[in-house]
Protein 1
Amino acid sequence: MKKTGRSRVRLSASFVLNALILAVFATFFLWIWQSLGLSQLLAAASSSIGLVSVIGWVDPADLVGWAVQVVVMSFGLYFILQGQRWAMESKRDRSPDDERIIQLFASAIHSTSDGMALTTKDGTFIWANEGMSKLTGYPVGEIIGSDPSLFKSGRQSPQVYKKLWSTVLAGMRYRGEFVNKRKDGSLYTGEINITPILNQHGEVTHFSVIERDITKRVETEESLRQGKERFRMLVESMNDGMVLLDNHEYIEYANPTLMSKLGYKADELVNLNFLDLLDDANRQLVHNQFEARQAGSRQSYDLNILNRSGLKKKFRVSPHGLFDKSAKLVGSIAVLRDITLEQETESRLVAAKEQAESTNKFQTSMLDNISHEFRTPLAGIIGFTELLEETVEEDQLEMVSHIKRSSQRLLRTLNGIISMSALLSDQLETEVQPCNVDTEIADLASDWSAVAKNKNVTLTTQSGLQDTLPKINKDQFRIIAESLIENAVKFTDVGEIRIITRVKDDSCFEFVVQDTGIGIEADAQKVIFEPFTQESSGITRTHTGMGLGLSVVGLLVAKMGGSIGLTSLKNVGSEFVVTLPLKSPFDILLGEEVQVETERQESKRPPRARAAFNSKAFSDLSQAV
């Protein structure tokens, strides 16, 4: 605490006054002493200190001299006491503020988490705080007296240390990051600040060292850097284009894919206004979408963008608005998928579909006309030949029978073509109902037993379903069964034909036709279910037909959710095994409510209207080969 000028004057005056009072008091005290007969003691005391010689009473001259000596002694004593007072005042002036600040400063240095140390000019530690001990794992006692090589990890090159020393020895501050090693061998990254301490001549005498552990910060920065690098690689390797726009639609970034698709070189799109890549109609579209994004919309839309050559390319844009903390739109990021080829392909597919539908309509119309124009005269021919068989002479009967057989063959061929066309165009009814398969097989076996008997072939049945009633389309099953039975009768000239039904498991049943006919070669078995295919062909064929029967069977079995297998040996016989679900997939797809509605609608139709497809297209399929 500094003294003012007035306080110094008061202090000096007080000093002189106190000295005079002390001198007077001392003189009076000695006179009293002498008057009480203590002069001998005084003389002895004076003589012992060599000031005066007392012989009897002291004369005035001696008394004055003695008084002067006393004053001098008093001044000396006063100076001693005043010096102590000044020291106490100086100490009191420094307290409590200065002392408290010094104490707080020392406490802060010792308790800070950063490592702090002082070194000599050659780098020897002369002081370190607890933060340095916690950071390095070394006790303070081990740090003091050592040098910074104690913490070396070997991760820095000698050039780094060389630069450090050249900087600090030149009196300049040094700051850097070092990977150091703790006492336990673990590594950490420290940010080190070294400040030279100079004497009054500007010479470096010591160094102040502050070290902070930034390991977590470095790890975080490295993680962010790696994440940024992965994001960059992801964006640049995308098959789709990506663009980043500011709030004025200027391009801040475009990935290489977009630049390549638009024909631009690296960074040529940056700082270009995105609207410059659009025509008027698409500019308005982008403007509308921009306003929608301000409201938070992320709706995708299709956009025509002009490439560098001025040609339009169509992109599907998936935008996303970028907002600041105040919910203000500051930019947009969008993924642009090139759908130019996709749109062209889709257009071609639509055109092909329309053409196919047109062709299908033409085919259906043509088949309907063929069915009408061929069936009607053939039905008349067959009917008249049946009448002629009863009326013509014996020598003409063979010709009439030949006409009848030829007409029936044409009718079977026509029915097979129409049936195949219906199957391929997926014009199948999906109605299913419980069906007594054993009863249907018995009826078919009865119809074909006479034909088999005329060829000296035995036809037998073995019913294994008993009370099981599969839920299937009965008309379609009859087509499958009759085609396989007819196929067996047609190609079996001796032996027997066995028709078997059996339950395979809880979900399927099997319909089996076994014969001892001519069999099928292994190579032919691979194509036997293809349309217009027979094992023998050309003028060497021994059996008539267009080869549609088994192909129709294969398609129907597949439509009903089943499978068909064939085992055959040439000149030994064949076995066809048809596996069908006990519950049709059509029934599972439609559900009970749809089935009830279908039955309700069927009850309102004319008696045979719902079977129009079967009666018209498949009525004679059992005769089509």
Protein 2
Amino acid sequence: MDLLERIPLRRCVLRSAACLLLSSALASAVMAQQEGSSIFVDRVDVNIVNVEVFVTDRSGRHIDGLSVEDFEVYEDGKPVEVTNFFAVARPPAPEPRGTPAGPVSSGTTESAAPATTAATLTPEIPPEQRLHLLVYIDNFNIRPGNRERVMASLDGFLEGRTQVGDRIMLVTYDRGIEAVQPFTNNSADITAALERIRKTRANGLTEDFRRRVASQQIAAALRDPITAAYARTYLEQYIDETRAYLQQSTRAVDSVIRSMAGLPGRKAMLYVSDGLPQRPGEQLIAQYFGDSSLSLRNNDTSYFQAIVRQANAQQVTFYSLDARGSVGSFSTAEYSDDTAGGVERTRLDALRTLNYQGALIDMSEPTGGTAFINTYNFDTVMDNMAKDFDNFYSLGYASPHAGDGEYHSIDVKIKRPGMSVRHRSGFNDKSEVERVQDKTLASLIAGLDKNPLGIRLEFEEAKKKGQKYLLPTLIRIPIRDVTLLPNGKVEEGRLRIFLVVQDAKGGVSPMQDLPYPVTIPSDKLEAARQSAIGSLHQLEIRQGRQKIAVGVWDELSGTESFTHQFVEIGNKGKKSKKGKRSGR
């Protein structure tokens, strides 16, 4: 039976209007009724912006016991009223017998009480303040030995975080994103996932090889006046390839951060890498050309600024760890052309170190996080992160720019002397459409499904088209919970569908955004409520195991649904899975 034959209703174009008033704690929508016009939706969002603040003294020790009166918050330089206040201070040592275990915390909404002593604090952190920690191992930009040293410290640290109720996710990147372990607080699952990561390749040495080859080509070209002009060509080829890899790497980080949009509570990401170049080719430029202006023209800080904006938009605190450890020579072999003496090698290594570590700093500090560099003591690194996770203040206020799509700066000041604050520098106030898109991506990458509408994905057999396949994909949407507005002899609704695919190598397709208007005759409504509508799409995808996520947004009620499903394409002896994983 054809897919469309199983759909009792077809989508139609909206031709008239209706009236309805909807309200909730965070949003209201007013639809004006005017015969013969389209449905007009004016949504007024009240967006609560939560700012995670870390307060330390001059020695770096976290300070607890502060109240809302100790803080001043500014958005775009203008003071805003803090309406939500929450404080957490987890004891650094186990409590005596008889004392409740777990974090000590205090929280209020609309008004705040000072956090003074453990006796006055709530012993449990509420769900909206629980931590989701995503650990991102950048296999493409890390060397095997460096990764192993970090993993040795990471194992015990993550086990400890699960014991205090944090949820952990493990992701790797090697020119494609792989969710090795979805969010869990099961320490056994985390340990098993870390072992699987240890068995994957760490490809940072490939960059050493590329740079060494480029260095040798440039040096050889410069030795002969006849071929000297080719030296710039070799440099530009290396820079172009490095920039392409950098763009892929930063886009992957960006998409993973976006996938955390649908998470409740606090969110943090630990990025583990040997660093990324702010200025591709800077070391080679300095070694062979001494042209600082050429290096400045190759500045790619915009990639890292985009990550900061994404992290701040999703309220993700970004931590980065230079897995290379203490500063030292990257690779002696790349100086095998003998063009650099010992002092020169030290200078070039220092230049390269600053280049690669600068990116880690730039991605972390504006989000309120920290870049951990120049240390082999990764256990101390983990301890310092734990202190952040266990000692913080959450300050919430109602942004006056709900969903305007613009970036707004945030500044938090502490009234007490001798203390400093660390927090994210701003946020991008995303529109509701952008937020739904982010949550659809969260379903794809992190498996975060939320499906009150009961949507389902169904597939027909894929047909080969050149090197790819066409996969007929049906998005089935039950009518029962879709908001419909009466207008004369019809009932009308307005849905929006978002569709995205991840291939077997971790590549993510562009997001499809599809308006989906609905019109149902009023005398057919009762029967229609027992049925479903559907949207059929021909997806052009590659061979292998594909992951498809769909989001459906009911624009009239604001209801959002997200689900994902795997399908096997093009493998002999295997058929496309049809309905094996339905929306939950």
Protein 3
Amino acid sequence: MSASSKRVAFIGAAVTAAVLYPAAAHAYVGPGAGFAVVGSLAVVFITFFLALGSLISWPFRALTRKLRVRKLRGPSQIKRAIVLGLDGLDPVLAKRFMQEGKLPHFAKLAEDGSFRMLETACPSMSPVAWSTFATGVDASRHNIFDFLGRDEKSYLPILSSTRITNPERSFRLGRYRIPIGKPSIRLMRKSRTFWSVLDDCYIPCHILRVPITFPPEKLRNGVVLSAMCVPDLRGTQGSFTYFTTDREKAGSYTGGTLVFVEREGNVVEGELPGPPSPLTEEHEVLTVPFVAEIDDFSETVTFDFGGNEVTLGESEYSDWLPLEFNAGLGVKVKGLVRIRVQKISPEFELYVTPINIDPDSPAMPISEPSMFSQYLAKLQGSYATLGLAEDTWALNERMIDELAFLEQTYAIHREREKMFMNSLAKNRNGLTVAVFDATDRIQHMFLRYLDKDHPSNRDKDTEIHSEAIEDLYVRMDVLLKRVLEHVDDETLLLVISDHGFKQFKRGVNLNTWALENGYMAGKTDATAGGGGGGDGEAAACDFGSYCAPGEGTSAIGEYLSGVDWSKTKVYQLGLSGIYINRKGREAQGIVTSDEYRAIKKELKEKLEGLRDPDTGEVVITSVYDAEEVMDGPYAGNAPDLIIGYNVGYRASWDAAVGKSSVSVVEDNVKSWSGDHCIDYRLVPGVLFTNRKVEAERPGLIDIGPSILDLFGVRVPDYMRGRPIYSGRESEGTGGDE
């Protein structure tokens, strides 16, 4: 079987739904060795004639390029642009730490250039905001509104960023079923990126780990390494595995798999579950075996883990371990994991990271050109490729502790620093963009340390890592120092974040609110009253669990299971808003076109100013009607109403996956204690730049157009952002926030 056939065979198989952001997902196989197409002598001749042809045609290509660039570009004010993206860096915390003298390089950049709050996207989520940054348009023009969308036919969640379509035909070969044809992998983000416009002008672009760049776009003069929503090898957005001999840990864990193993003497054996087999109808899970030999005297464990030999002490991570999952017919799926011994005795416990795609033998398109990921792996060694590589769910579920999470996150951060510095050294006359995730992930998990009354502090450490947020910002200041070494008078530098951060203390479940107020009904004999207005009465039930039809309860299970769509007008799924069960759009819609606007107005009036029954605080500050705030061609894909939560609140964990809860508002007790999925006006990002900013209210939407303008490239008419610089460094508004 050829390398191409192997790839098609593996991509053609559908696998497990994503755990973190449930959606149809797929696993892939790498290119493999394949068969030689031509002999070595033919390769020599072909290479010679290709080189000769390139040499002969060079003057003509150079002239064509010069004429094209002259047509597309005017005079340039810069030779180079560097964008340092620090996901989630908060302007309030940055200002505080600068005033305390802890961020000297940020303070100097603000003094010499500008420091402003940067307006984020609506809604204020990373996939939405970074897509706005990339394209210079709002969500209704780039089509990304949340991490999750929903299938209007099934009401099931789908990943918003990517669609994968399998080949329709296959043929049987013994016990195997081989797909015929190639799968389709599509990026659902629409509009053009500003770096593709630069690429048309032959300006080199290095785009590293910008969210929502999977699959990566092709550039004639640059490279792309994809980030957020690159899946793991199982096809999920990140699924850890936890091996233990402790039977008391039995239970359900979000974001990972618990596997029980037995200790016989000093030996523990197990198998790491990987992707489902792509070549059989049963799609049985492929596995990699491991053997662990425990030395109680030295308190170490020696592993043979998928052919990798490594010895670890308790609470110690391994380096990246390459793994191969054998699917048969020569198809092998390659991935990477790191392992950490959590306990040696009295119980043995082992944490295994999600299985990252191996960048040295990528099982799917994670970079452009495809060899770029391999080049980086050869240059600096193996590295994390998963879009959400920092394992927040393992910490949420207390499979790892805060120290283990910080060690993992900063190890990944160092990998990305190496990539960034390599690009800065090599790309001296173009655009270099790199987005770092540690700022986002650590604030999500450690913001509770800044508020002693946070519900997430219950039964958790509040002292050992109390300086984690400050240390994070100080580390970013050191990173900025390294970047400044590459900046001269002809270089534009921007340090930006896609949003800021606030405490997430209480979760809000609008499915529960809809049940209690008659807008939603469960499949029972005593459903919530009719789904019309606010006079409906919900049946008495335990809203925290799913009860099957006929059990006398109207609770809604995960992914909207148990909903009586014939009596439901409103439902919540994802983090950004709520949908109307509209007739002619949803498969079982009941809200007519005549009722549609009236019910939106009614919901807006009832939800804006909604108060927390326990604290009296306002829960929702604004409800945005998508029709009124968005006018782009994809506005119809947005939630009908976008919910602007107040500081301290967010859609609850149950609401995000389409489930009802015991209460409309409840404490958030997970380690994930900080968030930004609130009213976008309350959570701006940061803008630090070495030039004076003229615009009064700069936004993410303006960054791409500003860079194009300084390079002398006309801003395309489709972009809604505008240049923020005066074009003359001696003018502008100064560096004040």
